[in-house]
Amino acid sequence: MICSENCQYPWQCMICESVSDYFVKQCPQCQTPKEQFCRLLNTNYELNYQEQYKKIGIIEMECNQDRHNQEIIKLKISKILPQEIDDNEYFKKEFIIRPLTVPLIQSPQFQSVTQEQANDGVLFKSTFQYLNDTDLVIFENRAKAQMFLNSSIQNNVQCPIKQYIELKNVFPFQKPQLTMNDMLRWLKIPYSAQQFALTSIVIELLKRSYTFQAQMLQQLQFPIPEELSRLQGFTNLILFDIQVAQVEDNRQNYHQEIIEISAQVYNIDQRKRVQEFQKYIKPVDNPIISEYCTKQTGIKQFQINNGVSLQQAINQLTDIFKELGRFCIITQGDIDLIILKKEAERKKVKLVRNFTYYINIKKVFPKSLRSKTSLKDPSMTEMLECCGLLQYGNHESGTAKVVNLANLVDHLIFNENIRFDEKMLQYTCKI
Could you give the CA distance from residue 146 to residue 224 in angstroms, rounded to a whole number? Predict the structure, then answer.
């Protein structure tokens, strides 16, 4: 066993067998490069000079405790020059980030940031200037990198990072479920260094001649393979509602056919409804609707008689979709698109893929605005009241529903800074 009283991390030269500190890059006696340690790490020592990043950025973070809407509340940025690593001088700065959409303190005992500090924090975007001159960015793991990207999208800013290295994935002698404490212990880094723990680990590896290589880079993007290019950054939102024929006694053999489709196109940039769609649908199985149905929906028999087929209505709505670019359907519940899909299958009506994903406004309505006494998803009336909005028309009619939905979406975007994005998506069964 190699030992040395003066070296905390001893290594033995392969040529002269003298013992020296791991921190040195070559043997002090015979000037042999420190190849032994590099070979154990399965990395080429010579790449330190052939493929070396000039400035490495390291990002560490702390998030709130809200699992449904996580936000970064503390951000630590370090910048290291590998060629000057022995000087132990490098840039590091800590930021308290002002929360965007949710209250900060859900579990104060688990967080190091107080509500007062968060209220006086900086905007997330203001930290980007410290990453502009970095050649490489390192995160602890993929989840932290994804959180940084999510925060960029929440704040409606372009993420400055396209590629990164996940330290847990490239750490030498890695084990399954490797934790930050495991890496600190393996490198014998003292507990006092844990304030910038990831930075301390990267510095230690660089001092031991470890090389971060281009082959380690990973792409920073949402893991939504087919919808990725089409859905990121919605330009328009489709406020959608259907009405179905119904009877008072709810007979089991009664088909609740769609008798109305209502939709409005809300353009986020213009902050207004730019197009409307409303069609009455002729039912096939039960052409005559009940008085109970008329009372509940406001739809009369003569309107149904002058209606169109479900196929015609879907074709016309699909034509509108083609002109919208990136968009997503928003509903007041999970049932609308499920009913539409089932009836389309039964009547052999072809649906485009845009009907397979949607955002349920009740599921993403901010918890900070909800009633503190109710554990259920809020109704449209409750959401409007929480936002101080007046209800439009008879809320049971399809037209009134989409108008109220549009007013609510407008308020959430421009008064509550809510961004409707991929994390909110729900899916029906595949078509």
Answer: 12
The radius of gyration computed from the CA coordinates of the chain, to the nearest angstrom, equals 29
Composition of the chain by helix, strand, coil, percent to 5: 35, 20, 45
Q: Which helix (H) or strand (E) holds 59?
A: strand 56-63
Residue 381 in domain = yes
Q: How far apart are CA 357 and CA 354, in angstroms?
A: 6
Predicted TM-score of the model (pTM):
0.49
Are 403 and 359 members of one domain? yes
- 225-279 per-position pLDDT tens digit: 443 444 456 889 999 999 998 887 766 667 789 999 999 999 988 888 899 999 9
Distance CA 53, CA 136 (A): 7
Sheet strands side by side (includes 163-166): 91-96, 72-80, 56-63, 136-139, 163-166, 218-219
Contact 328, 359 (CB under 8 A): yes
* Distance between first and last Cα of the chain: 65
Phi, psi of 369 (to 5 degrees): -100, -10
Domain of residue 69: give its range.
Answer: 51-219
Phi then psi for residue 135, to 5 deg, are -90, -20
For residues 372 and 282, state if they share a domain. Answer: yes
Element holding 146 (H helix, E strand)? helix 142-154
